[in-house]
Amino acid sequence: MTASPTGRRETRNGRDGVVLTRTFRAPIKSVWAAITESDRLARWIGTWSGDPSSGSVEFRMNAEGDDVQDETFTIHRCEPPHLLEVSSPAGETDTFDLLLELTETAGTTTLTFSQSMTDPELAANVGPGWEYYLDRLVAAESGNDVAAISFDDYHPGQSDHYRGLFA
């Protein structure tokens, strides 16, 4: 079964990119912990090591197979429990610029996730990947089986949607 894409193109912080939203029946501090604490991240995407107060951490994805290398993520803004802005080198000339924003209303927390980009082919690959990982986050936070979520349900099935956002 192919999951339906939810991402959209928006301008955030003055840059175009892919934006995805997920909601949680949980307090904002709990969702903040799920996106910032290494042991909570491990449940859905990966782990980090190092000292965040230094301005960067080493991040390793855990659902990408065994050939994954640590990536350095620079922390640009961290305003608990509402905003996290980070970046990581992507290739020789690009960076992945990520912005995670949290709001809470009446016990429901909304995560708005964005990655700056304008390249249709990058979007065709990265968009479905973030759909997959954010659905894994939702599963982890709601007590469901994260392993039951298959990347094949997202990619390549959602690629045309994301490519079209930037065509």
Automatic annotation (TrEMBL):
It comes from the Bacteria. Pfam families: AHSA1. Belongs to the AHA1 family. SUPFAM superfamilies: Bet v1-like. This is Uncharacterized conserved protein YndB, AHSA1/START domain. InterPro entries: ASHA1/2-like_C (IPR013538), START-like_dom_sf (IPR023393). Residues 25-139 form the Activator of Hsp90 ATPase homologue 1/2-like C-terminal domain.
